[in-house]
Amino acid sequence: MDLNGGNVTQVTSAGKVDDAEWSVDGRIFTHWEQPEGICFNCLVTVDGTDIADAGGKGTIQEFLPFWTNDGHRVELGSGDVNGSGNDDIFLVGENFPDLFYFLTNSPGNDRNPDTAATCGPTHGIYPQYGSIEAAKTTETNEAPADNQLSNGAFVIGYTGDIGSIMQKDFDQACSKLEVECLKGESITELADKGVDAIIDASNRWDVMGSHSAIHDTVERGIPLFILNAETDDQGVYNLSAEHEIYMTTLHWMFQQMEGQGKFLYYNFGDSTYIQYQIDSVLTEYPGVTAIKKPADYSGNSFTQQQIAAMVAEDPNLSAIWATEQLNDIFWSINDNSNNHHPLTECMARKDEFINWKNVLDSGSDFQCIAQVRPGGTAYEGIYVAYYYLSGLKFKPDAFFAGSNNTLRYDIPVITNAELPTWIGEKLEPLRVSDNGFLELPPMTPNEIKARWFEE
Length: 455
Fold this sequence. Notes:
The structure is a single chain. The protein is an alpha/beta fold. It has a domain at 146-242 and 375-452: Response regulator (Rossmann fold). The protein contains 13 helices and 22 strands. The protein has helices at residues 132-140, 164-177, 187-192, 204-209, 211-219, 242-256, 272-282, 304-313, 326-333, 350-361, 377-389, 419-426, 445-452, and strands spanning 21-22, 28-34, 37-44, 51-53, 66-67, 73-79, 88-92, 100-102, 155-160, 180-183, 197-201, 224-227, 236-239, 261-266, 288-293, 317-322, 344-345, 368-371, 373-374, 413-414, 431-432, 438-440. Strands 10-9-11-12-13 form a five-stranded parallel β-sheet, with helices on both faces. It has a four-stranded antiparallel β-sheet with strand order 1-2-3-4, with no helix packed on it. Strands 5-6-7-8 form a four-stranded antiparallel β-sheet, with no helix packed on it. Helix 2 (164-177) runs parallel beside helix 11 and helix 6 packs parallel to helix 7. The two termini are 32 Å apart.
């Protein structure tokens, strides 16, 4: 609720809740006897729509930190730890000479301490964890005009899997802005060097493995910009269209199926991030029967012959999709022995487009969807970090629907109807990546600002 008691929101229902504490990322930590059972260490979003497990000993405190006025992270607790015979409230931290710093010392039992959601370093990336007055000042400050933007005053670090094209984009953007850009081996190394912002060229596997480094970096108050992958950590901004492309592809398939039929898919590596998206879209199409096939990176997935055989044997198979090996699926569906052609996704490559058109020109009823990914995220990332450090604010609609930190791109969608136009007119302005995929070129600085930032 608001401080005046208004705007009351019920977060949980149908079960006893034993306690409630604010977590560092603005969620609520609680023990809840929910309908599915007792969630001993629950993390619940403030609107009650999402429940997560905070883990056990050693991981819970990642969500319940507390800071002293001089910026030391400590833990808040209570109990009889000094042998006094009663419980006291204390702080625990290596910065204290005796590890414990007692806040109470009374003959009674002092228990159940809690911190406010606004407790945190005022210089941090989370304005909601600074003082209320500081947050108000941030909200009312006007964005500076172009001629007031800092020039050369920032150090922007970048790291990750950087190919030749991406390196050129980094160099060009840093040179145009006349900012100091520092290349590092890791996020942690750059954070230790005290850069003002960090850009990480990542992928969905790296970003999962870097969760601890990402968390530690934003705790230090350093804004982090992830390229070509997505995380929902607060204090991180994603320049990626991965989520948007997956959602568009799946919705297109199920709509073409008129919400009915068999959908066979391969989630390579069993990515929980991708599985969540698949499951969320499937809830909107209860008539679609999803068949998940095992797929890993050790050769235990499928061959063209196996897919072709499944298509031939099951005329009710409406769509096939995978996170890898799309070219194998393309040729399997278009095997000469098959009379029906399940929907699928085509790769955004010139040779794939030509093969796709040749199949259609032969009179086939094959249907496909392809999308062109952004190819200038390194160039755009430097400008986004620069504008952000300079005080510009993101537009309310800067982010992809359903996300509060993934910037929205204008992704071209190509289906059978659009394919001839793309082959005839629209391929020339596109880039070709190091591995042959067609990509959107970087936006201009004015386009970046107009799309994502308030004037």
